[in-house]
Amino acid sequence: MKNVQIHPGDVSPDLPPVFDRRRRERIALRIPLRVLSCGLLMERSDEAICTDLSESGVAFDTEAQLNVGDIVLLEFHQKGEAAYRCHARLAYRMGRKYGAYFLGGE
Question: CA 98, 67, 49, 105 torsion: positive or negative?
């Protein structure tokens, strides 16, 4: 086995930009969001806060315990506006923060 020596100046703590998988510009915001999901025995409705949004996906914070890979229905509410709904697949979870990408239009 070959030994590789790494010197402190040889390591960069930041990943190069090519590793950022986001292809669309994201907008930071804080708006209420409802996450509707179906379990084996029942449907669930959980409150969340949308923290950023792009044409292709969304990030949100919630206390809910959701499963990465599941398809959920996201319902955005704004005062004085009709609710907007869209399907999304949960792509990642980091603590209370989830990321999802939107699926085809309804």
Answer: positive
Those residues with Cβ within 8 angstroms of residue 75's Cβ, 6 or more apart along the chain or in another chain: 33, 34, 35, 36, 83, 84, 85
CA 46 to chain centre: 15
Total-model pTM = 0.72
CB 80 within 8 A of CB 35: no
CA nearest 35: which of 78, 75, 82?
75
Per residue in 24-40, pLDDT (tens digit) is: 688 888 999 999 988 77
Spell out the domains of the chain, with CATH numbers in brackets.
17-102 (2.40.10.220)
